[in-house]
């Protein structure tokens, strides 16, 4: 898992996380004002590894959270067990591809992009796709988790990931008729409730997210062109 993480990051394509960093740079957010604190991001990565790649969790924890307290390690186990006990989540944990890397070209900007999806279930005839994405959350109610989906740009992520399949370089999902994307919030505090948001059923959620990621892809392309022009001026 650690090697795969490094390999994915080394692929010279634009990811949704790259767009988040670009947004923070353009809007002038200092490191302390990141939408998601670094510690929370590390815990979230460890949770994903514990859930999706349990055989490698020891290495991930050592890499990401070397000073993890026993109580935090126990909390990881509680959260993953809560997910596995849920019949819907457990079903697709068994049936889905996990940590699927997809390479695609955005048709609007013509930029090469990449995505790594938590879980993807493709129906036998490839007519339907279900994407599941897990989020650790401090939300205590369904409405709070739904609000966090807007606060943390999950609409942009949902659109980016769905379009990664639609525009995949492999054309594996070219004949797929329906894409469904469910965000699963896993409450970090007891009682560790699960919240589910079917993002594709919310009016305009995906369309608005698509507008957002394509705006930042245009900014990314403009920045690349500016950097190239600056390098040429320096070289001449």
TrEMBL record:
Question: Which InterPro entries is this protein grouped with?
Answer: PDDEXK-like_dom_sf, Put_RecE_PDDEXK-like_dom
Q: Name one Pfam family in it.
A: DUF3799
Q: Which residues form the Putative exodeoxyribonuclease 8 PDDEXK-like domain?
A: 37-222
Look up the domain of life of the source. Bacteria
According to UniProt, the name of this protein is Putative exodeoxyribonuclease 8 PDDEXK-like domain-containing protein
Recite the lineage of the species: Bacteria, Pseudomonadati, Bacteroidota, Cytophagia, Cytophagales
